[in-house]
Please model this.
Amino acid sequence: MIKVENVSFKYKNCDNFILDNLNFEIKEGEVVAIVGQNGSGKSTIGKIISGILKIKQGNVFIDELKIKDKEAQRRVGIVFQNPENQIIFNNIYDELSFSLKGLNKDEIENRIINSLRKVDMLDYKDRDLYTLSLGQKQRIMIAEVLAKKSKYIVLDEPTTMIDSQGKEKIYNIIKELKNEGYTIICITNLAEEILIADRTLILKNGKIVEEIKKEELINKVYKLQENEIKEPILLEILDKLGKNKIIFDMKDYTVNELVENLKRIIKI
Model:
């Protein structure tokens, strides 16, 4: 479990707190979306949870360990918006093995193979990163976190710079990782990523102002609108279907999956 208690934070040379007495919990095995307007502090939360930013007010616990504990920090991995900002080496194998120093050769090889397989990039193991698309590079960055065996994964706007095909691949990876028991915090400005999450936390003025469970999304879509969060197209579709007495449970539908279900219902 990740537990954030009474955390306040401001950057140097800044008078105002970007996070103000923040409190929330994330349970093991959850996918949680944190959404909010630009400048609301979403990315700051990710950096605090992963130990990149140090806090002076409040506490963050990772499985009851304080975040300043190196073991707590090892349990959390973070992937940023632009994968090119995280890349150190040109070669994929070198990139993944760099963070695995101290392990024997066989263990390093096994971890790299397993992590690349999880992101469907095993065939690229010996390739150079500069030959990959941005979406493929992002999948390598996720593989790097997996190779380190991070228990909790923070994805900081992971698909903002990626085309629609690349987004779909990463969404499928998130679903698979959830099925394997990983805990994922998805910091996002993209409405469609809300649909992947078990819960959505809305951040405003440095505080969590709303918590919406997946099964509540259709009935609480107005909460997104009130906080100027773009409504997922899929929710609009499901809402209109409901008004016409065609009811769908909230599942991990993509738009394409919804279309296929509709075809079966109306027998196209």
Q: What stands out?
A: The mean pLDDT is 90.
